[in-house]
Amino acid sequence: MESKRNRFWKISVFALLFAVLAVISIGCASADTIYVPEGGNQKIQQAVNNASEGDIIIVRDGTYNENVNVSKRLTICSENGSANCIVNAADSGDHVFNVTADYVNISGLTVENAAGYQKAGIYLDSVEHCNIFDNNASNNYYGIYLYSSSNNNLTNNTASDNEGGIILSYSSNNNLTNNTASDNDCSILLYYSSNNNLTNNTANSNNDEVSIYLRYSSSNTLTSNTANSNNEVGIELDSSSNNNLTNNTASNNDCGILLYSSSNNTLTNNTASNNSLGIALSSSSSNNTLTGNTASNNSLGILLYYSSNNNTLTGNTASDNYNGIRLYYSSNYNRLYHNSLINNTNNNAYDTNTNQWNTSTVGNYYSDYTGSDNNSDGIGDTSHQIPGGSSIDYFPLMRQWGRTPLKGDLDDDDEITSKDAAIALQIAVGSRPFDDAADVSGDGRVSSLDALIILQMVT
C-alpha cells in the first residue's frame, strides 16, 4: 500500500508542476518534464545541462553523488520527498547546488557533505525570485547560503548539523518561513542584510555562539521564531538597527535575547524564560523600545548595562527571576513605566544610574511595594525607592497595568484562595491598607463579611 508520505509528495509535485506550467503558459511557451535517472539524464547535472529555460526536473528516489551547477531557470524537485532523495557532494570542497540563475525552484531534496570552508548544501549567488522549500541540508559547512541575493523564499527547510544552518550575506527582501535549523554552531545568520522577514522558524539546541544572529543588519522583521536550549545566546542583534522582534521565544539559553551595540530596534511581546539573562541591552545599545515582553525564571530578567541609554521599557513583565530589572554600568536616561515586577527573589528593580521610573502620572507595579492607596486611584500614596542608587518611582502602581482586578483576588495570582480571605481579614482589622478588590460585598468598606464571602468563593 502506498504510504501517506508518498501520496503527500506526489500531490505536492503535481501541484508544483501545475503552478509552474500555468506560469509558463502565460509566456506562450511549454515546459518539458525531465526525469532523473532516465535515458541520457542519469545524473542531475546532465538533466540541468540538457534542459531548457523553464523545464522541470523530477529526481527519483536514490542517492546521487554530484555537485550541481544551475545557471538557468529551472524547477528541480524530488519525486517522493527529501527522505528518499539524497544528493551527496561528490567534491566536499564545493557546493552541492550552486545556483546562479533567477527563478530557480529546488524542493524535496536532502543535500549533504559540502564540508569545505564556507561551502553550502544550497548556495544562491546573486539571484532573485528563487523558491527553496522542503529540503534537508545537513552535514555541510553551511546548510543554505544566500549571497547578494534578494526576493527569495526559503520555506519548510531543515538545516541541521552544519557549522551554519541558514546564512544570508549582503542579501535583502528575502522570506524565511517555517524552517528548522538545529544542532548547528549558528543556526540563522544575517550579515549586512536588510529588509528580510523571518517567521515561525525554529533554531534550537545549537552548540556554540548564537542561534539567530543579526550582525550589521537593519530593518529586518523577526516574528514568532523559537530559539531554545542553545549554549550561548538565543537571539542576538550585534551592531544592528531598526529591526522588529515580535512574539519570539528564547528559553534555556545562557542569554535569551541580546542587543549588543544596537539601536533603534523594537522588541514586542517576546518571551525569555529559564535563561541566565532574559533580555539584555549592552554596549551602547540605545533608543530601543521594549514593549509587552515577558522575562521569567531567569537569573536576571531584563538588564541594561555598559552605557545603554535612552531606551523605553513599557508594559514588560519580569517575574520569578533572581533579579527583575537591573540598570547599571553607566546606563542612563532610560524611561520605564507600566512594567510589572513580580516575585523576583533578590530585587524586583535595581538601578545604580539616573533613569526615569515613571511618567507624569503612572509608574510601575512592584510586588514588594508596601504603600497604601487611600483614594483607590490605583496609584500608591507614597513613592517607591529603587534599590541601588537615587532613582525613585513617584507613582507606583497598586496592581499590574492593564489588568482588570478580580474581586477577591488580593495577592494578584488570578485565583481566589484562603490566602485572599486572610488578607481581607487583615484589611478589615486595619493591619493592611484598603484594597477595593477586597470589597466583594460592594458596601464601600472591607469587613469580616467580605473575608467570609471570599472564603466561600474558594473552589
Automatic annotation (TrEMBL):
A Pfam family per the record: NosD
GO biological process, one term: polysaccharide catabolic process
Gene Ontology MF terms: hydrolase activity, hydrolyzing O-glycosyl compounds
Pathway(s) of this molecule: Protein modification; protein ubiquitination
Keyword Cell inner membrane part of the UniProt annotation: no
Dockerin domain span: 403-459
Keywords associated with the record: Repeat, Ubl conjugation pathway
Signal peptide: none
UniProt keyword Repeat present: yes
InterPro entries: Carb-bd_sugar_hydrolysis-dom, Dockerin_1_rpt, Dockerin_dom, Dockerin_dom_sf, NosD_dom, Para_beta_helix_rpt-2, PbH1, Pectin_lyas_fold
Protein name as catalogued: Cell surface glycoprotein
Organism for this UniProt entry: Candidatus Argoarchaeum ethanivorans
